[in-house]
């Protein structure tokens, strides 16, 4: 059995193998060779180019380049690996079956036709594609064109529309902020857009928050928000529908400008931003009271005797662990064929979605419900800085994305892998003799292998980690950092957050992250079991005195298609969406459940989609539909869908950025009576100390299986960073 443990709850889930005793895994022989892991590898730049060249050559598709030109055209938006179906992959991995055909998933925006739509295709076989076929979502629904993610071209057209609309407001913006939008070269305003883009399916109306374009512009709203309708494929028909300025609504820029000229407008005058030590910058300012040194390097991670993990292609091995991994452009890190000592633990563990729901007084704040798969969460994996984002000694890997681009784009150092000293022993014991000495001391230093990437989704940075521990425990964790999503401060806004600077409100919001955990414990025939622990009174069998008490456990087998964490085990309901009966809710429903367990189905590969952000009212992927059948989950191929999250009440200490301590959530996979003993006993890293001459303790036997001294640690070398992609 393996336990899935949520970091904000007790251990509540058990997934058991099918009937019969659990096997004792044997190390070595059953670890798959690296060429087998390659069926899950991301597409190479050559494969991405081959898919694009093939599709561009098909006259019936009528494709045009993505950049430049009109919006009303057919374009290739996304190309990424289409993973093989699970049954075909397992047949190949476990039974010597044929290697699954390598295929790509291609997303095409058909905007240049009378009824625009979006179609996804399977393209293959790779590396020389020769055919394509449409992919269908469960239920066979077509993808509405209005549900498409934003593109760079659409942003450029929005900028032109906004620049023209802001021309009447030049004097107001110049006088109140010192910056303006149209015809500017230095003291410019910029904008952030929010979503969903409207209030009903088919709409594409976006509130834009205007900000001064300085370092950390997310924290510099100027008090103006503009609603633009940009649904029509022809940008000449786009229009500003409303404006909000300093607590008041206006029907047009001209009305707002007229009020200013008449002197009847409540104007928000902003101070000139300083040229140095701007509050939104990382430049040091102030001093610590102790004056302990910070101008020298702090502690570092090192590998004194070299790396203790093995990376071959996309196969990673560490201690008893082996796995294949990829970085999806659409949603981020995805692990496949996760094994410990050759025994498969999970077929897939992957990030599905990250959402942030906001409250506020301004129209943009009250409308904001970010669903980051719709913003290319897996494609914004910018360069990791050595020594900051990951240790200097880490292995750094590049990623190649074809996302809203006319070819693959290289993101250097997008992934890092490193062994991390946890700073706490994995286990230890001091065996006292209670007379000033000891019988023995034994300890095993704590370490874990970390697989990491980041997603910078505009203002927010997510740090995605999978950690592998020597005792068969896997941890999935995400840290939230970056700039808060801030709006202009008004007294009415205090209900929805904190005033974090003179004109800046940090808006209250929840962070929710959804994972897919396709567990295969000793095969695909698993059952779902919960364990509850209760306090009971019992008769004391060895004394007729008062009644004793103790704990006992209760196990129950799940038989429905859904299981929700009981309220008694959940510390708070904050962060989950309303239950379906609580009223209208324009959000994808996976996040209503702390945990849901369903049968595996090939047509349910993901719980969300890149289209949910701009059409959350009628999502293409209906997670609720995964649960409606209420299928038995006993001795079946099971998938656990896990939601973790936290409530973020912004505060002044979120300036300039939200810090990672206290802003991390995740879950653990832990073996539970699966092994005969802690499997980390296979590690050669423990230290055992025994006294040879008690009670004097002048001579000790120190038993270890590693060199007595770790040796030199960090190799010298200057910090370098490129940052381009």
Automatic annotation (TrEMBL):
<keyword id="KW-0479">Metal-binding</keyword>
<dbReference type="InterPro" id="IPR036460">
    <property type="entry name" value="Cu_amine_oxidase_C_sf"/>
</dbReference>
<dbReference type="InterPro" id="IPR015798">
    <property type="entry name" value="Cu_amine_oxidase_C"/>
</dbReference>
<dbReference type="InterPro" id="IPR015800">
    <property type="entry name" value="Cu_amine_oxidase_N2"/>
</dbReference>
<dbReference type="GO" id="GO:0048038">
    <property type="term" value="F:quinone binding"/>
</dbReference>
<keyword id="KW-0732">Signal</keyword>
<dbReference type="GO" id="GO:0046677">
    <property type="term" value="P:response to antibiotic"/>
</dbReference>
<feature type="active site" description="Schiff-base intermediate with substrate; via topaquinone">
    <location>
        <position position="460"/>
    </location>
</feature>
<dbReference type="InterPro" id="IPR000269">
    <property type="entry name" value="Cu_amine_oxidase"/>
</dbReference>
<keyword id="KW-0560">Oxidoreductase</keyword>
<dbReference type="InterPro" id="IPR049947">
    <property type="entry name" value="Cu_Am_Ox_Cu-bd"/>
</dbReference>
<keyword id="KW-0801">TPQ</keyword>
<protein>
    <recommendedName>
        <fullName>Amine oxidase</fullName>
        <ecNumber>1.4.3.-</ecNumber>
    </recommendedName>
</protein>
<comment type="similarity">
    <text>Belongs to the copper/topaquinone oxidase family.</text>
</comment>
<dbReference type="InterPro" id="IPR015802">
    <property type="entry name" value="Cu_amine_oxidase_N3"/>
</dbReference>
<dbReference type="InterPro" id="IPR049948">
    <property type="entry name" value="Cu_Am_ox_TPQ-bd"/>
</dbReference>
<feature type="domain" description="Copper amine oxidase N3-terminal">
    <location>
        <begin position="148"/>
        <end position="247"/>
    </location>
</feature>
<dbReference type="GO" id="GO:0005507">
    <property type="term" value="F:copper ion binding"/>
</dbReference>
<feature type="domain" description="Copper amine oxidase N2-terminal">
    <location>
        <begin position="47"/>
        <end position="131"/>
    </location>
</feature>
<dbReference type="Pfam" id="PF02727">
    <property type="entry name" value="Cu_amine_oxidN2"/>
</dbReference>
<feature type="modified residue" description="2',4',5'-topaquinone">
    <location>
        <position position="460"/>
    </location>
</feature>
<feature type="active site" description="Proton acceptor">
    <location>
        <position position="372"/>
    </location>
</feature>
<dbReference type="InterPro" id="IPR016182">
    <property type="entry name" value="Cu_amine_oxidase_N-reg"/>
</dbReference>
<dbReference type="Pfam" id="PF01179">
    <property type="entry name" value="Cu_amine_oxid"/>
</dbReference>
<keyword id="KW-0186">Copper</keyword>
<dbReference type="GO" id="GO:0005886">
    <property type="term" value="C:plasma membrane"/>
</dbReference>
<dbReference type="GO" id="GO:0052597">
    <property type="term" value="F:diamine oxidase activity"/>
</dbReference>
<feature type="signal peptide">
    <location>
        <begin position="1"/>
        <end position="18"/>
    </location>
</feature>
<dbReference type="Pfam" id="PF02728">
    <property type="entry name" value="Cu_amine_oxidN3"/>
</dbReference>
<feature type="domain" description="Copper amine oxidase catalytic">
    <location>
        <begin position="300"/>
        <end position="551"/>
    </location>
</feature>
<feature type="domain" description="Copper amine oxidase catalytic">
    <location>
        <begin position="592"/>
        <end position="680"/>
    </location>
</feature>
<dbReference type="GO" id="GO:0008131">
    <property type="term" value="F:primary methylamine oxidase activity"/>
</dbReference>
<dbReference type="GO" id="GO:0009308">
    <property type="term" value="P:amine metabolic process"/>
</dbReference>
């Amino acid at each position: 059995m393996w336990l899935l443990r949520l970091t904000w709850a007790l251990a509540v889930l058990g997934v058991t193998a099918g009937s019969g005793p659990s096997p004792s895994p044997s190390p070595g022989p059953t670890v798959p060779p690296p060429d087998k892991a390659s069926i899950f590898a991301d597409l190479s730049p050559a494969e991405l180019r081959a898919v694009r060249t093939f599709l561009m050559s098909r006259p019936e598709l009528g494709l045009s380049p993505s950049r430049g030109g009109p919006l009303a055209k057919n374009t290739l938006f996304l190309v990424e690996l289409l993973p093989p179906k699970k049954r075909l992959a397992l047949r190949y991995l476990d039974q010597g079956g044929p290697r699954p055909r390598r295929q790509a998933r291609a997303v095409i925006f058909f905007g240049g036709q009378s009824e625009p739509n979006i179609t996804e295709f399977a393209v293959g076989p790779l590396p020389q594609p020769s055919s394509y076929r449409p992919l269908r979502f469960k239920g066979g629904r077509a993808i509405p064109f209005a549900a498409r993610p934003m593109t760079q071209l659409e942003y450029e057209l929005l900028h032109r529309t906004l620049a023209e609309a802001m021309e009447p407001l030049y004097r107001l913006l110049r006088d109140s902020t010192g910056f303006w939008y149209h015809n500017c070269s230095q003291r410019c305003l910029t904008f952030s857009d929010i979503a969903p883009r409207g209030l009903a399916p088919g709409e594409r109306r976006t509130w834009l928050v205007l900000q001064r374009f300085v370092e950390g512009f997310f924290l510099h709203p100027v008090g103006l928000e503009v609603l633009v309708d940009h649904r029509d494929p022809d940008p000449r028909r786009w229009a500003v529908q409303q404006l909000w300025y300093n607590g008041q609504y206006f029907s047009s820029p001209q009305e707002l400008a007229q009020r200013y000229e008449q002197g009847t407008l409540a104007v928000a005058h902003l101070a000139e931003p300083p040229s140095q030590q701007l509050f939104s910058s990382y430049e040091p300012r102030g001093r610590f009271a102790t004056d302990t040194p910070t101008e020298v390097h702090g502690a570092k991670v090192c590998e004194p005797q070299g790396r203790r993990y093995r990376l071959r292609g996309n196969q990673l091995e560490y201690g008893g662990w082996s796995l294949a991994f990829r970085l999806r452009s659409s949603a981020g890190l995805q692990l496949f064929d996760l094994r410990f000592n050759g025994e498969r633990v999970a077929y897939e563990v992957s990030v599905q979605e990250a959402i942030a729901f906001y409250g506020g007084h301004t129209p943009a704040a009250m409308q904001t419900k970010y669903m980051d798969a719709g913003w290319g969460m897996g494609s914004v994996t910018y360069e990791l800085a050595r020594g900051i984002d990951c240790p200097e000694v880490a292995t750094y890997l590049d990623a190649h994305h074809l996302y809203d681009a006319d070819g693959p784009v290289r993101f250097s150092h997008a992934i890092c892998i490193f062994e991390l000293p946890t700073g706490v022993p994995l286990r230890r014991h001091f065996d006292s003799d209670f007379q000033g000495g000891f019988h023995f001391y034994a300890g095993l230093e704590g370490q874990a292998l970390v697989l990491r990437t980041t997603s910078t989704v505009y203002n927010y940075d997510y740090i995605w980690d999978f950690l592998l521990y020597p005792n068969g425990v896997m941890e999935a964790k995400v840290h939230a950092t970056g700039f808060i999503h801030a709006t202009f401060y008004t007294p009415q806004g205090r209900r929805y957050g904190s005033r974090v600077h003179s004109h800046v409100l940090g808006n209250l919001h929840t962070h929710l992250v959804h994972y897919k955990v396709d567990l295969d414990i000793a095969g695909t025939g698993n059952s779902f079991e919960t364990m509850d622990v209760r306090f009971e009174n019992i008769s004391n069998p060895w004394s007729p005195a008062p009644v004793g008490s103790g704990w006992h456990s209760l196990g129950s087998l799940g038989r429905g298609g859904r299981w929700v964490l009981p309220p008694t085990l959940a510390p708070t309901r904050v962060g989950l969406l309303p239950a379906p009966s609580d009223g209208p809710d324009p959000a994808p429903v996976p996040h209503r459940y702390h945990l849901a367990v369903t049968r595996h189905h090939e047509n349910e590969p993901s719980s969300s989609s890149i289209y949910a952000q701009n059409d959350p009212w009628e999502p293409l992927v209906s997670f609720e539909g995964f649960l409606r059948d209420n299928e038995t989950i006993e001795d079946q191929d099971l998938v656990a869908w896990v939601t973790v999250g936290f409530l973020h009440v912004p505060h002044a200490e979120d300036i300039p950025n939200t810090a990672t301590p206290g802003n991390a959530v995740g879950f653990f996979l832990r073996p539970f009576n699966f092994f005969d003993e802690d499997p980390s006993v296979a590690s050669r890293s423990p230290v055992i100390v025994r006294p040879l001459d008690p009670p004097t303790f002048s001579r000790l036997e120190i038993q270890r299986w590693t060199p007595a001294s770790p040796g030199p640690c960090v190799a010298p070398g200057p910090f370098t960073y490129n940052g381009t992609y």
